[in-house]
From TrEMBL, chains A, B, C, D:
Residues that hold substrate according to the record: 64, 114, 160, 167, 191, 243, 261
GO biological-process terms attached to the record: glutamate biosynthetic process; L-glutamine catabolic process
Name of protein: Glutaminase
Alphabetized UniProt keyword annotations: Acetylation, Hydrolase
Record family assignment: Belongs to the glutaminase family.
Catalysed transformations (reactions): L-glutamine + H2O = L-glutamate + NH4(+)
Pfam families associated with the record: Glutaminase
Name of the top EC class for this enzyme: hydrolase
EC number annotated for this UniProt entry: 3.5.1.2
Known partners and oligomeric status: Homotetramer.
Keyword Electron transport annotated: no
Native species: Ancylobacter rudongensis
A GO term, aspect molecular function: glutaminase activity
Length: 308, 308, 308, 308
């Protein structure tokens, strides 16, 4: 087995040099300003060691990666009753598709497509003030990452508030089926803001540790969720974490993972490591192009695939 | 860790006694004759030990489980060129849906829905005689299971030949997009027959060993496929192996698996075991009801989930 | 040919007595208060004679019938450029479907499904204040019907403003494709209000005269639109005027017509008459149950079908 | 009103000269051999006068126009029971779409899309021999056109038999829902052959007379169908006769019509004339490009639109 440090360093070097970098997301205007040349990686192993490469300390918009943490919070609040309001099957559709909602009575296919994550946000909000709910999500991430400096990029949130018509369509559509309980603007306000949380690869890999270690922080032993729940969240990440590229990610990388259109990916090697990568250029399915390749290299060289 | 023998015995006893048994498939008339009370399980561990419970020696129609082995053969024949003719994303649709084909120019979403498996069969056939191709598939299974007694249930094959109008629709539809190269009747003939192969849980678990052990027979060390290919087949089984219930299976069982409407499931615990279960009653997604529950028990008690 | 007065009276009597009355729309709460026993009919012939039956003077919510008049206004404003923003094919989908929008880049299929009518409203609004635009639509109807008493039922408008989540979804969805130019709330405000215009059968039949007579008021000779435009609006009413029941209406009634979920239908017998019927109970496609039957009787007895 | 002879002559001259001629259908190999420069027109008025222009005597493959006549025959056989097996709504889909079938349990939307016409053919076949049924269809056309020379182009039929995989898919799909009663090959055999009937514009316009004149041959007074049935067939032609271009045809031409991929269109001006045009180049919806333009000219100049 090669040294993790060596592997991470070589991956960062390769990714830095590659000419193919994907397309930076433009559908949220503020995200279009990201640097296509950026690449970062951070790996936290079971001993709590953090190995980083490239722009691992630079904060980026985590976007849909936040959905892993809001799902965790919503399950903590209402447990399996959550599954009455959102499914857990891959959708076979793009991240912002509304067709599936019409065919299935407004119930989103899974918590990681936009519609599903909006429904999950509505569960966390549940009658509270948007500001309070957003604070709760932010504190949860700060706690998991052991870093109180994590915050929201207000420019990104405002940009999405102004232009997020498709998410507004999804939310109103679900509201028409009574899948959302709170005022649409409240739910969307929280949703847009938690997607606009900015984190570095280091912070993100730290926050994901509990998923790699049976629901616990391996350093402190503190339990975040039960082992069964950690496994199940990982399962949903594997089948649904990359929108309509989830099969491809499983095939090539072989780890549970969740991507965001900001170019980040959080991946989990159960029992071994929590991993975050970031590169703003996306592939056709809306997932980080170099991020996926970097993770493919990492699992191959470290033998971390969950598939053997 | 409990004894595997104890776990398997207790699962067989529980499954034998449960009143909820699902619905026996009726869409192939011959399959409707299966005994809803049957339940079998067989586990082959890395040392080659076979632990069985219930009706583990009774032969049943493996149906779509054959698709794992035809995929393996097709990859052996043309490698990654296969992916020009079939995708590897979950479909978000029932096993026999044709909608997806119309939306995606006749290219099936993955090799485990019916359309995809027909396209894979067409690749194996590739200009040969149906009889010869079918012989090749059968010999491959006999070799993997180390059992020359494995054969085809001709009554099931004939029943499907007479009534398989929906599969005939899928095949002709793909033919109209030039996704199939052979005469439709040739390809379907091979497809209907390899789905009609009859195997016991013991034979099936034996045949699946290479997927659990890096592509090798762990007893003999003989390599069937490369470690990478074994991992990738497992990944496709995880994301696509249970039709529109694949997310549910990953969530509850946490193993790569492939089900068939005959009530069988082949599951793979990488590095640990190859597992086959059988109970003819199906759930709403067309997967064995008790088979899935049995596998859920097994992975929980043995700690075999790939998700931590 | 029977006397029109006799036919209208007998139709009103039959409809008053029938036990099958359809289901009053409940999706806008305020509409659910309509009296299922109501039935009205008004026919204006080419000489300008008005023949009425039943509750022909009672005002009801015209709902989607307003779309005929907003289409006329929008064509008056921008002519055939309108067809860049909305199609003119039957949709094969329910009135509030969003699936078609996703498949066709946010361009609604025709101006008579909800999405299409919202896009048409956006064209009329075109940078003006909602209040002014609404005034323009209202004055157009008052002018056509020669009745300044026509107004908006504010309770219905407010009810739809509060609950119209699905229309809000459609509008935001189109906005995400830049099909709408004005703020979504402005466009929807005008849309909800023009759907809430209340008219009697008499007023509606008067307003529809220009469509029956080559674009002119047959009494005054005053031209509203060109003969070609009148024909074309009639053609769209025939193919698209009854949502997913348009084929059925053409088959049974044989006249261009537009229905609303308030239970009204405006129908046009070219060269012969403008007709309005009203009965609040709807059929499965959302069209007035007795209204359609009444029109079927009328065209059969008067020989007014456009199909021979 | 201009002279019909003058109008027809001028239309034939304009169409002969236009450079835009559409694309000759290639999906049936044999049809691809048609001459893109051909154009023919024939009009039979209520006095039985036949006015022709261009290549009005040249035989072409009527293809889907045959569906008007098979619908008439099927209604003659089982009356309104036909509507249990096929709908009468526009489909909003291309002529050979299978998506709609999956969504609606194998019941085709209307008798003029391919699936619907195959179901109608199955009704006519109804246990008879394909050869006899085909003879019946052919004799019906010979009788209507008063021309025993009408026959089948066997090369076209054979070409479609060899390559009609998509129609084969549609038929098998419906068979899986028990919408077809006869062996799929029998029904398709009759379908492929009646689509391959070859007729000239003159013959086709003669055959369509009964639809323009209340179900009767205006010359002999002989009744083919009841007036109501003639109106209803016209209504279905109007809403469904041009696949996903039916709205466009109604909007521009304003007559009931049925097109075929051979480039022919049969149109009906109720009470006035039966019209056939032919030009092999098709538009994007699969309808004759110049045929539609020619009919638009004709109705405008003669004032024959049914819409006023």
């Amino acid at each position: 087995m090669p040294e993790l440090e060596t592997v991470v360093r070589e991956i960062a070097e390769e990714m830095r040099a590659r000419p193919d970098r994907g397309e930076v997301a433009s559908y949220i205007p503020e995200l279009a300003r990201a640097d296509a040349n950026a690449f970062g990686i951070a790996v936290v192993d079971r001993e709590g060691r953090v190995v980083v490469g490239g722009d691992a300390e630079a904060a980026f918009s985590i976007q849909s990666i936040s959905k892993v943490f809001t799902l965790t919070l919503a399950l903590g609040k209402i447990g399996d009753r959550l599954w009455r309001r959102v499914g857990r099957e891959p959708s076979g559709s793009p991240f912002n598709s509304i067709v599936q909602l019409e065919n299935e009575h407004g119930i989103p296919r899974n918590p990681f497509i936009n519609a599903g994550a909006i429904a999950v946000t509505d569960v966390i909000l549940s009658g509270h003030q948007p500001r309070d709910t957003l604070g709760e999500i932010l504190r949860f991430l700060q706690f998991l990452a052991e870093d109180p400096a994590i915050g929201i990029d207000e420019a990104v949130a405002a940009s999405e508030q102004r232009t997020g018509f498709r998410n507004r369509a999804l939310a109103n559509y679900m509201k028409s089926f009574n899948v959302l309980e709170n005022p649409v603007d409240f739910t969307l306000g929280v949703y847009f803001h938690h997607c606009a949380i900015a984190m570095s690869c280091r912070q993100l890999a730290m926050a994901g540790r509990f998923l790699a270690h049976n629901g616990r922080n391996p350093a402190t032993g503190f339990s975040v969720v039960s082992p069964e729940r950690a496994r199940r969240i990982n399962a949903i990440m594997l089948t649904c974490g990359h929108y309509d590229g989830s099969g491809e990610f499983a095939y090539r990388v072989g780890l549970p993972g969740k991507s965001g259109v900001g170019g980040g990916i959080l991946a989990v090697a159960p029992g071994k490591a929590s991993i975050a990568v970031w590169s703003p250029g996306l592939d056709a399915s809306g997932n980080s192009h170099l991020g996926r390749i970097a993770l493919e290299r990492l699992t191959q060289r470290m033998g971390w695939s969950i598939f053997g």
